[in-house]
Amino acid sequence: MVKKMGPGVLVAAAFIGPGTVTACTLAGVGFGYDLLWAMLFSIVATLVLQEMAARLGVVTQNGLADVIKNELRAPLLRKLFIGMILAAIVLGNTAYEGGNIGGATLGLVAIFGDEFSFWYPYIVGALAFVILFLGNYKVLEKVFMGLVLAMSLSFLITAFITRPNLGSMLKGMLVPNLPEGSILTVIALIGTTVVPYNLFLHASLVSEKWKSKEDLKFAKSDTIISIVLGGMVSMAIIIAAAAIPGQGVDNVMDLAKGLEPLYGQAAQYFMGMGLFAAGVTSAITAPLAAAYVANSCFGWKAGLKDLKFKLVWMGILLLGVLSMSFGIKPIEIIKFAQVANGLLLPIIAVFLLWVVNR
């Protein structure tokens, strides 16, 4: 079974990025265990949508954008929808890439200090470049399995050492509750977990790994195991964050400092390793997903080793590194990408339901 796994791990790695880590941290700090139900809902929704995307990829042997192009007959509607996909995914991922590299950089600062922090974005960018340039699925899968395992252990151990109250934790997970001022945090938890670009990435990856309907069972088990593991990591961050007072905690590294008086410097290193792994995995999958979307939208039929494919992910990776190096904060582009992705997700969800059940 392990040999048959792969693409789902990349999807789990993609949605556990610095944005997810930060959203979960603020949820735990601000509301304790009360919003665990929102994360559970997000995990179930992600499971349903990603399983449909995987099924679509195996059965049609096409990416999601290819299927959309084939199903939309009206030329104007097709162009509008493809344009929206390109704007939301390619432009959006360009904006997010700076945050991904920034998150990995924060992790390195927590582990090694900030004496050489100027070089950290370049180190992260170079690492992502090497992994992507290898262009080998087996290598990619092994790298991501290692990073996801490291990330999972880091955050799960951090949650464990906080000794959570099991009764309160189960209540927060199973009884929906909206404390005052929590609605935006709930939206953030759902939005950072159910990611539109992951649907495109997953469909493309499974169509290249598995070639027959007999492989559907492997795609399904791969998806379930990977998404559940990713969801456990998100919940672990919320649980760890719930253990300390919220005053002065604005991001995950503040959380690490807050845990230090209680659990020593080990907590900071665990959080640092987790954030580094989260940043690196997202710094790799965001350009990869954008390249797959561009590939499908423009009908290139290119693979990981093709020049056009490489130019897309190289461009996004380069812009991400530069934005961190020069302190650029592409807030307006990120806001646009979030709005576009928010509009895109329900449309794609309905489309997936329609196509899969035909």
The proportion of strand residues reads under 5%
Average pLDDT score = 82
Number of structural domains: 1
Q: So what's the overall shape?
A: globular
Helix content: over 70%
Described by its quaternary structure, the protein is single chain
* Fourth CATH level, the homologous superfamily: Amino acid/polyamine transporter I
Q: Mind sketching the topology for me?
A:
Blueprint (H helix, E strand, L loop, with lengths): L6 H9 L2 H14 L4 H25 L3 H8 L3 H38 L7 H15 L2 H25 L4 H9 L8 H11 L2 H14 L6 H26 L10 H12 L1 H33 L9 H19 L5 H26 L2
Description:
- This protein has 358 residues and is mainly α.
- The chain has helices spanning 7-15, 18-31, 36-60, 64-71, 75-112, 120-134, 137-161, 166-174, 183-193, 196-209, 216-241, 252-263, 265-297, 307-325, 331-356.
- It has a single domain, classed as Amino acid/polyamine transporter I, CATH 1.20.1740.
- The protein has 15 helices and no strands.
- It is globular, with a radius of gyration of 19 Å.
Quick overview of this protein structure:
By secondary structure, the chain is mostly helical. The chain is built from 15 helices and no strands.
